[in-house]
Amino acid sequence: MLSKERIDELAQLQINLGYTFKDILLLNKALTHKSYVNEKSEAIKNNERFEFMGDSVLDVVVSHYMVKTFQDFSEGLLSKIRAAVVNEACLAGLARDICLGDYLLLGRGEDLTGGRDKNSILANAFEAVAGAVYFDSNLETAYDVFLPRLKKEIAQYAKTSRFRDFKSELQHFSQNTLNCIPFYKVVKETGPDHEKQFEVVVRTNGEEQGRGAGRSKKEAEQAAARSALEHLNPEFKENGG
């Protein structure tokens, strides 16, 4: 059983999280680090099993939202964005947003060496809390609790060009909307061999849809594909184009 002081303490965390546990022991377990368990003589479970479950829960939440929202994103792009969103640094930041470190049960040594603000501990604890919410309720509830916190991160990475494969997006859009595939052609090359600049045109059904330039044919094709998507797909900019 938890002390009244601990229950009162966890009440604030539940407010921060936006979810009230039916079984408060699940939340407490999610906050119990292995360093704390190692210093106790009684049998106490740490949060690692919840962390394992929570990792899967957050993956499903992010994947479900992205598949519904970014319908022209390739599987590879979706995987890259998901990996960026559920990585250690991102989850640690989300944990700090709800002051999760203040509620962790840590061993004395870990506490004294700044464990409450370590990315690895915070990220793992955030996953464990996600697992605890799932076990206390269901996946739909976990989705409602965690998606609002994850959406901002998803949008940020979705807008980052280095994650985008515009050629794949354009091909997917063209096949599904125009019943054709894009055709790319280099129309101009300038500069010396060590500083070449390429200009590429992309066409669908014989009509020019976009142009792009770059230091390589691949870079120019990506720029042309992006230009075409801006021209052809009204939802492109809404989805972070």
Automatic annotation (TrEMBL):
CDD domains: DSRM_RNAse_III_family (cd10845), RIBOc (cd00593). It is found in: Cytoplasm. The keyword Nuclease applies. Residues 165-234 form the DRBM domain. Residues 203-241 are annotated as: Disordered. The active site is at 55, 127. The keyword Cytoplasm applies. Keywords: Cytoplasm, Endonuclease, Hydrolase, Magnesium, Metal-binding, mRNA processing, Nuclease, RNA-binding, rRNA processing, rRNA-binding, tRNA processing. One of its GO terms (molecular function) is ribonuclease III activity. It is an enzyme of class 3 (hydrolase). Homodimer. This is Ribonuclease 3. It comes from Nitrospina gracilis (strain 3/211).
